[in-house]
Amino acid sequence: MKTLLIPVDFSAPSNNAVDYAAGFANLRGIERIILLTNCYVSAFEQIIPSPDFVQAGEKEVQFQKSKLNHQLKASKTHLLQKLNPGITVDVVLTCEPLLRSILDGIERAKPDIIIIGSNGRNDVNESYIGVHIIELAKTSPVPVLIVPPETHYQPVTHALVPCDFRSLKRVGQLEHLKKIKNWPHPQLAVLNIDPAQKHLKDGYPPEGVEGVLKEYLHDYDYHIVYDADRNTLHGIIKFADENHLQLIIALPGQHSFLYTLTHQSISHGLAMNANQPVLILK
Predict the structure, then answer these.
(1) Distance CA 253, CA 60 (A)
(2) pTM to 2 decimals?
(3) Is 192 left (phi over 0), alpha (psi -120 to 50) or beta?
(4) d(Cα 93, Cα 69) in Å, to the nearest integer?
(5) pLDDT tens across 225-251, in order?
């Protein structure tokens, strides 16, 4: 792992994600961090005034670009003071929409991971980037680490992997853990939300499931745990909080934790998760 991409909007959640990335980079052998922001004004905005009767002309656009450049440089200076020597920080200001800016940044820089700050439960609109976390998490071709507000970096020794045992295909999504094979391997709690409590019966999980777990997790110290909560999202967050786990790893795919979040409001779901960052694999 060599490069981090951090979309920033200079809000409190965004600034916290930058600070979290500093601790992450210092212990993960990161060589380069890219701070990316955008200044996009649509053609519509240039023609039609805002509700405050402000029309986005060339002068206003240039002023906004100058302001963002100043903020980027200040963030770079702040970040460099926290980083180990040898880690470089680049800044990028684009004039494209947010999602396009990030996808273009991924294409150019080939980052190993994107780090994004999420909004808190008290102000779900505080960060512009946090508001669009669904689109960013679903569209990114590289893993996305979502950092809740006021969460500070700590080395991850214990992580939670929610996993659906109802079919081998779903369990097979564990293969995507290979994407973080260069990370120090934390102890994994493989959580199956089981409201029917099938795990109390003999022969559960099925033999095939155990085989897949052993195949993909043979490099990890892991154990299987169950929760009977009928609300999958609530069960995952509750288990992580009660067991003081430092990271939730979300597997990709239609039946993954990410799918659950996107159908129950990922922004609200992550705001509920006040303590643990969420790593969404690809």
Answers:
(1) 43
(2) 0.86
(3) beta
(4) 7
(5) 999 888 888 888 889 999 999 999 888
